[in-house]
Amino acid sequence: MPRPYRALAAASSLFLASSGIILAVATGAGAATCGAHKVTSIPGAKAEYRLACQNGNLRVYGWVKDTRADGDFAALHVHSSSGEVRSAFANGWGEVEHFNFTFARARSAEVRLSLDN
After folding, report:
1. Among 17, 33, 75, 99, which is 20 to 30 Å from 39 by CA?
2. CA 56 to CA 14: how far, in whole Å?
3. Alpha helical stretches, state H, 2-113
4. Could you tell me how far CA 2 lies from the centroid of its own chain?
């Protein structure tokens, strides 16, 4: 990575870490399409989800788990191709939160796992 981008990335990471808004984001977060099955984790959080399509709607369902006793909570954010955003939160070490979201007129979604406080 060229130096200006490294400096910008480091500054952005420092700002986010100091603000406590988002402490970590799952790597490889990208658009998933119908039929996808993913298991993802970051230090402190884990999630498993599936995407299914029927009659022009997208269903995203699964679970998110808080895996560390650190005062933060696991957050899973689903950004559908139709522009809607829904989230599920597991607050407390070992807590598992199941979710089942339906998005009208969508066939893909970007799913992001993070730690929030």
Report:
1. 17
2. 41
3. 3-19
4. 28
Q: Would you call 7 exposed, middle or buried from its count of C-beta atoms within 10 A (0-12, 13-18, 19+)?
A: exposed
Cβ-count burial 54-91 (b if 16+ within 10 Å, e if not): eeeebbbebbbbbbeeeebbbbbbbbbeeebebebebe
Burial class for 111, CB neighbours closer than 10 Å (0-12, 13-18, 19+): buried
Count other Cβ atoms within 10 Å, centred on residue 115: 22
| Best CA proximity match to 24, nearest among 1, 50, 43 | 43
Length of the chain: 117
pTM equals 0.74
